[in-house]
């Protein structure tokens, strides 16, 4: 469905905050708010109020795109379609996110994971344009990944859970994931780094050994994504990836583990594949808009 309306409502629903906006088809943001993710009643109540105020201001919309933290039930026809299912986020398990907002705002709702949304946004307007296989990984409080293949987000059994890919931990380090211990998220998220090193990750000095360990973990993840999905783009977003020089470290470790096994197309280097988002911090928000254009 083409973006033919004047305005659309979009939400990037994260575990820390809900970024809510009304946008035009040209991605002009006409109204925006960030709402802390506290309890469903509080956060969703404030979300509904914001969008109702936009209607009163003349920004009328009939469709809402939601790129949300999960896990989500994305099986259309399921009685819990659009629900956040079993999540470690307190109070949010079994929340009818899509259904509640559709009823409260009297609009059509399209929902997908925040990282699938970000991957779709990057495919449409960002760093993954023209890529047949694109992966977006956010490295922040947690780690999650979305996949777009031939312009369509990958769902399959549930949806990708790239953060729970098992990897070899750096020497002397044990992961903290309560489900899998040494998965990518349990070793490399901001939360995990803080627990492993007993200090917040944003306080690490430039020469802190955590950075090399993180690059080792993310390098293994990128290696696995390249040999399993034949990914043409692996976009690394999220707050932790804003650390200067971290992408270069990930490129070096990925190159070392691949050991020249993959023969790249002529003119393509590993730094063309593994990169930062082209949409900056807007990948998820604009991804929610791209979800409405399918």
Automatic annotation (TrEMBL):
<dbReference type="InterPro" id="IPR000600">
    <property type="entry name" value="ROK"/>
</dbReference>
<dbReference type="GO" id="GO:0046872">
    <property type="term" value="F:metal ion binding"/>
</dbReference>
<keyword id="KW-0119">Carbohydrate metabolism</keyword>
<keyword id="KW-0418">Kinase</keyword>
<keyword id="KW-0460">Magnesium</keyword>
<keyword id="KW-0547">Nucleotide-binding</keyword>
<keyword id="KW-0479">Metal-binding</keyword>
<dbReference type="GO" id="GO:0005524">
    <property type="term" value="F:ATP binding"/>
</dbReference>
<keyword id="KW-0862">Zinc</keyword>
<dbReference type="InterPro" id="IPR049874">
    <property type="entry name" value="ROK_cs"/>
</dbReference>
<comment type="similarity">
    <text>Belongs to the ROK (NagC/XylR) family.</text>
</comment>
<dbReference type="InterPro" id="IPR043129">
    <property type="entry name" value="ATPase_NBD"/>
</dbReference>
<keyword id="KW-0067">ATP-binding</keyword>
<dbReference type="GO" id="GO:0008865">
    <property type="term" value="F:fructokinase activity"/>
</dbReference>
<protein>
    <recommendedName>
        <fullName>fructokinase</fullName>
        <ecNumber>2.7.1.4</ecNumber>
    </recommendedName>
</protein>
<keyword id="KW-0808">Transferase</keyword>
<dbReference type="Pfam" id="PF00480">
    <property type="entry name" value="ROK"/>
</dbReference>
<dbReference type="InterPro" id="IPR051804">
    <property type="entry name" value="Carb_Metab_Reg_Kinase/Isom"/>
</dbReference>
